[in-house]
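#onboarding

Welcome to the new folks! Below is a worked example of what a typical request in this channel looks like: someone posts a single protein sequence, and someone else replies with the predicted structure as tokens. Don't worry about understanding the tokens yet, we'll cover that in week two.

Example request:
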Amino acid sequence: MFEDLEARGFQFEFLSHAAAILKVDFPDALDELRRALEHVSVPIEELIGSGGGETKGTQRLRHALAELGWPKETFTIEKRINGAARESVSHVVDHVRRLSNGVVALELEWNNKDPFFDRDLENFKRLHAEGAIDVGVVVTRGASLQDALVGLVRRFADERQLAGVQALLALGLNPTRRQQSDFERRVRGGQTFREAWAQSFVQDKYGASTTHWRKLDDRLRRGVGNPCPLLLIGLPASIVTFGEGLDIARFESDEGAPS
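Example response:
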């Protein structure tokens, strides 16, 4: 189904018969997902310059999905008694694909706090139970990307020959006092500055308590979101690219811009 993407390291998992539902009822949605994902790339400068926020690369994925007919949508579930509204609950979903025979909903969790997975999965469960969606999709950092982050950041530090905090400042990075103290502690422990900065940066910005594949899998093993049919997609380390020579300061100034 996604053989070309799997060869590049993308992770896919289908739950509650999602594979059969998507393949039989929503082949166009599958093809659109494949087309959007096959062009995803995140230059290392974006990954670092975003400061842990959403990168320009993931924003480009959002734009690609929107152009393919997957806009953001708010679902409102309202209960009425004798025609009078008594209770109303709204669910905002990142991307929704409406087709003639059903609805596919997608959430992209690049780097939120991991409880956002609970919110997304419970929203999908509720919307599926109410007949508002047929399948939920969650896209997040895959295991290979999470495992490779320190090495990727260290490679950037080596290529830029970063030798201290002044080198970070020259790039447009502005570590806090707390972060600088962490660098110093690690260096005193025997690490080089590059090792210290890479490990500290990843721990601070893309740590274990953020949204990535293993945190998503933890929820699924506990049954969160069950029985909504789900497609889970993990973005691989191979989407991170080197050699663009981009200006990090430009990404820092754009941090927080709407996606």
